[in-house]
Amino acid sequence: MPNPVIISTNPLLHADPDVAVSVEPFHAQLGNQQQQVEQLNNIVFTYSSGNSGKKPLWLLDGQHRTLGMKKTSEHTTLGGEDRSDQPIPFILLHGDPYDPSQLAKIFTHVTSGA
Q1: How many CB atoms lie within 10 A of CB 60?
Q2: C-alpha pair distances (Å), 58 with each of 7, 9, 31, 38, 75
Q3: Fewer CB within 10 Å: N-end or C-end of the chain?
């Protein structure tokens, strides 16, 4: 895959008690102890039962790549390789600087620049 997909947390749900996204440090087991791994994080999604279809993430760039990866599972009988469970590299835009207008600018830039 040539480029990572670009994902953002949904700024419209920032204060919504039914949906939460947090970025937490990643820890690896080394012998009998765990150690934090620099530059790696876990992304934790929390939903309440009243989610009602709220979307905590927006896919800004890479819609066709992710759909294509999903569709590979349907074409293995034609000699294709199922890549639907392969990791997809991504960039996560998360935090206060990413309001809807800023994300719209990023979306416009990456889609028109291609």
Answers
A1: 21
A2: 6, 6, 38, 26, 27
A3: C
End-to-end, the C-alpha distance of the chain in Å comes to: 15
Burial of 8 (0-12, 13-18, 19+ CB in 10 A): buried
pLDDT of residue 49: 65
Tell me, yes or no, if the pTM score tops 0.85.
no
- Burial of residue 19 (CB within 10 Å: 0-12, 13-18, 19+) is buried
Counts for the chain of helices (H) and strands (E), in that order:
2, 5
**Among candidate residues 83, 100, 86, 103, the one with its CA nearest the CA of residue 12:** 100
Whole-Å CA distances, 93 to 61, 69, 85, 90, 99? 12, 22, 23, 10, 10
Residue with tokens 């087991």: 29
Q: Nearest CA to 9 among 37, 44, 39?
A: 44
Task: List the structure tokens of 103.
Answer: 């994300």
Asked if residue 81 lies in contact with residue 29, where contact means CB atoms within 8 angstroms, the answer is no
